[in-house]
Every structure is written in structure tokens, then in C-alpha cells.
Design goal:
The chain is α+β, with helices and mostly antiparallel strands. It has a single domain, classed as Ribbon (Umud Fragment, subunit A), CATH 2.10.109.10. Helices cover about 15% and strands about 30% of the residues. It contains 3 helices and 13 strands. Strands 1-2-13-5-6-11-12 form a 7-stranded antiparallel sheet. It has a 4-stranded antiparallel sheet with strand order 9-8-7-10, with no helix packed on it. A two-stranded antiparallel ribbon has the order 3-4. The chain is globular and about 70 Å long. The termini are far apart.
Length: about 210
């Protein structure tokens, strides 16, 4: 006579399924993909206020949660990558900027023009809204450096160069604070409109959905 298996209760089956789903979601969010929302215009026109992004957290390696210590290295951030990271002045806040300087690079700004290792570089993503040139003694916005990026650090800037709080003002991003690389826009709309208004839904930017971020 074959033994009779005791059937799980419906409650237990649902509970186990929910627990597995939660653990899987936490694993994916911690190590693979995480969603972020753009709250400011510092990356205009590349990223708009109200863009919702998926960020690849796996591309730069597997890290220990909360410490940033790398367990499995894969690749390092490169110049031109748009990265999400913990803001050095308040690590509870996440920022998004573009890498313009890697460890060992010498970075300088001369009248808004970007120089790396003494040579002016192509800077196609830079966007300017103001023609005024401020001297370095007044602000690092238009004239800055030269400085050499230390080991384990990155120099980042917003594409909206005249309206971005970035490495020119608060320094480098530590490698351990890099959370991932911006991957794709999965949703976008005007967040300044009332949430339940018809205008909010008509403000959906359909042409930006599924755009690969570069």
C-alpha cells in the first residue's frame, strides 16, 4: 500500500509562493535590476524629469549589500557611462550622472570646454543654457582644475552642465558607491501635473518608452 502524502493547506501554499516571490524580487533588486525615477533636470536633455529607468546593477560586478564591497568583479565604469550612485554628501540619496573621468585621468574645464589628460575631448552630451563664463575663483562651473582622479574614484558631471550639482562642486564618486548603469527608460510622463488629472495621462511620453539610455 502506497503512503498517502499529506496535502498542504491552501494558506500554506499561498504563503510559500508569496515568500518565494518576495525573496526573488529582493534578489533581483539587490543584484540585478532596480528602478529609479528622474526628479531633476541635471541630465537634460538626455534624461527628462519624470523619466523612469531600469538600472543594471550586475554590470559592474556583484557587491555586498550596504557595504559596496565587490565580491565578483565584471567590469568598471567607463567614460560616457551614465551611472546611479550614492550621493557622497548624503549616502541615503541616489544621484545619476555621466562618468567623464576614470581613475588616473587628469580633468580640466576651460571656459566650459572639457579637457582630459591635457587634450580637449569630444563632449557631445554636454548641454548649455547660459553663455556667461564664470572664473574659477567665483565658481567651478565653467573653469575647473586640473585635477587627477584618485584610484577607486570617478569624476562625474550632469549633461545639463549649467544646472548640475556634480563632481565640480562636491568631489569624486567612490567605486563602492556606484549602484549600476542606467539601461532603459520604461516609463515617462510629466510629474508636475496632478496625479489623478486627465492631463497627467495625456502627458505620457510614448516616444521615450523602451529607449536605450546612452
Amino acid at each position: 500500500m502506497e503512503p498517502v502524502q499529506k496535502r498542504k493547506s491552501v494558506f500554506r501554499e499561498y504563503a510559500e509562493a508569496i515568500i518565494v516571490a518576495i525573496l526573488l524580487a529582493l534578489f533581483i533588486r539587490t543584484f540585478v535590476i532596480q528602478a529609479f525615477k528622474i526628479p531633476s533636470g541635471s541630465m537634460l536633455p538626455t534624461l527628462l524629469i519624470g523619466d523612469h529607468l531600469l538600472v543594471n546593477k550586475f554590470i559592474y560586478g556583484i557587491k555586498v549589500p550596504f557595504t559596496g564591497k565587490q565580491l565578483v568583479p565584471i567590469k568598471d565604469p567607463k567614460t560616457g557611462d551614465i551611472i546611479v550612485f550614492r550621493y557622497p554628501k548624503d549616502r541615503s540619496v541616489d544621484y545619476i550622472k555621466r562618468v567623464v573621468g576614470e581613475p588616473g585621468d587628469t580633468i580640466q574645464l576651460k571656459n566650459k570646454k572639457l579637457y582630459k589628460n591635457g587634450a580637449r575631448i569630444d563632449d557631445p552630451h554636454a548641454h548649455f543654457t547660459n553663455t556667461a563664463m564664470l572664473p574659477a575663483a567665483v565658481s567651478p562651473k565653467d573653469n575647473f582644475g586640473p585635477i587627477t582622479v584618485p584610484d577607486g574614484k570617478y569624476f562625474v558631471m550632469g549633461d545639463n552642465r549649467d544646472n548640475s550639482s556634480d563632481s565640480r562642486f562636491w568631489g569624486y564618486v567612490d567605486e563602492a558607491d556606484v549602484l549600476g548603469k542606467a539601461l532603459i527608460i520604461y516609463w515617462s510622463w510629466d510629474i508636475d501635473l496632478p496625479l489623478l488629472s486627465l492631463d497627467r495621462f495625456t502627458s505620457i511620453r510614448w516616444d521615450r518608452l523602451a529607449d536605450i539610455i546612452r
